[in-house]
Hints:
CATH class of the largest domain: Alpha Beta
Bound molecules: adenosine-5'-diphosphate
Number of strands: 18
CATH topology of the largest domain: Rossmann fold
CATH architecture of the largest domain: 3-Layer(aba) Sandwich
Number of helices: 21
Mean pLDDT: 96
Strand order of the largest sheet: 3-4-5-2-1-6-7-11-12
Number of domains: 2
Helix content: 25-40%
Amino acid sequence: MAKKTNVLFAAFECAPFLKTGGLGDVAGALPAALKSDDMDCRVILPLLSQIPAKYKEKMKYVEHYDVDLGWRKQYCGLFTMRMGGVTYYFLDNEFYFKRAAIYGEFDDGERVAYFSMAVLETIRHIAKNFRPDILHANDWHTALIPVFLREKFNGDPLYDRIKTVFTIHNLKFQGQYSAYMTGDVLGLQGTPAEGQMIHDGAVNFLQGAVIYSDAVTTVSPTYAEEICRPEYGEGLEGLFQSRKYKLSGIINGIDTKSYDPATDKALVVNYDASTLKKKRENKLALQKEMGLNEDPGVPVFGMVGRLTMQKGANLVSDLMGRFMSRNMQVVVLGTGDHVYEEALGQAAFSSGGKVSASISFNEGLARRIYAGADVFLMPSLFEPCGLAQMISMRYGTLPLVRETGGLSDTVKGYWDHGEEADGFSFKDFDASGLSNAVDQALNLWFDHPDIWKKLQSNATGRNFSWEESAEEYRKLYRSLL
Ligand code: ADP
C-alpha cells in the first residue's frame, strides 16, 4: 500500500477541549473527517490551563525538551491522548499557558511565537511514529509556523519536504506588534522575513504566513474573493491580490452528530426533518425559559453569537424599536461589546415579553434557540464562513443573513430563489436592508405558511456534513505533494 499522507493540524483552540468560536469547532471536527485509508491527521495544541481537568486526566506525558525562541530557551512538555479516533498532542509550558485568559494577555505575541516554535521542535520528537508531510496552521496564533519552518529549520531533511497550508478563519486578528519583536522574540533578524513581515511599520504575523505558506485558504470561496478588495481585506488586500495563485476558499462543515435535533440532549423535545411540528413544543419551552409571551403563532427571531458590529449587533439594536412594533419576538444570546449588551438588555427590559436577551455564553440555551426559534438572525458585516446559519438550517429554523462571505455560499435567500430558497437575505449592511428582509419573513410566516414549510424542508434537506469539505482539503494537500 502507498504511504499515508500525514497532516499535522496546529490550532490554539479545539473543541471539545477549549472553544471560543468557529476555529474551535473546525479544529474539533475537520481532523476526524480527514482521516481516510491514505491520510492520517493529528492535532497539536497548547496545553492551556482552561482545558477542563476531565481531559487533562486522560493525557499521557511523553517527554520534555527545550525550545529556542530568540535568545530564550524555554521548557516544552509533550502530552498526548487519543479521542474519537484522532491523536492529539498538547504542548505544556505553564509560563505561557497558565494564564487568567486564553487571549488578550500582554505578551500574546510571545506566547504564540513560543507555540509555533514548539510545534516545529516537537516534530523531531514524534517523527518515529508520525512524520508530517503537511503542516496545516490556522489563524494568526499559528501564523509563524510556516515562517519559522523555512527560516529556522531550512536544510534539515526532516523538515525540508514538509508543505504548509495556512487557513484564515478571522482576518480581523493578524498579530501586529512592534518591529522590535522580530529580532528579540522571533529571532528573525537578518533573514528575508525581517523585511517581508513588516506592514505599516509593524511586524505582521499573518502577513508572514501568507507569504511563506505553500497554500492559503479561507473558510468560504466568497470570502477568499472578498479579502482581495479593500472593504474586506483589513489592509492586506494588496498582499492577497498578489498571492491569488495560491489562495482558495473551502467552506466549513458542521458537526452533524453533535448538532442533531433528533438526539440533542439540550432540547425539550427531539425531532427530525419529518417531525418539524415538534418545533412548536421547543418554541413554547423557549418562550417560557426566556420570559417571552407564550404564543406559538408569533414568529420568534433568534440570534446567537458575539455581540459585535461584525455580527450586525448594531443593526439589530438600532432596529429594536421597529421590531417591537411588529407582531414578532426576538431572543438574543451572546456577549460582546458593552454598548450592544446594554442596548439589547434595555430593549428586553421594556419590551413587555416581546424581546429577551441573555448576555452570557450558554451552549445549552444556544441549542434551544436553534430549535425553538422560527428565524435565525445573522446580519453580518463580514463573515468568513459562519457556522450558526448552518446549524439553524439543520434545526429547521430559517436563517436571515446578509449576503457576504460564507453566508452567501450557504444560504439561498427567498428574494432571489423563491420556493427553492432555504432562508432570507439582504445585500446592503444597513438598517433598511435588514428591516425589509424581516418584513419579508413576517409576510411569508403570516400569509404563506405552505411556502414557509417548503423553505423549512429545503433547509433541513441541505447537507452540511464535513465530508465534502474534507475531500476538498485532501485534494489541496495532494496537489502540494
Ligand atoms: P464566530 O465568528 O464567532 O466563530 P461562527 O458562527 O462561525 O461565529 O461560530 C460561532 C459558534 O459559537 C457557534 O457554534 C455558536 O453556536 C457558538 N456561540 C457563539 N456565541 C455563543 C453564546 N453566547 N453561547 C453559546 N454558544 C455561542
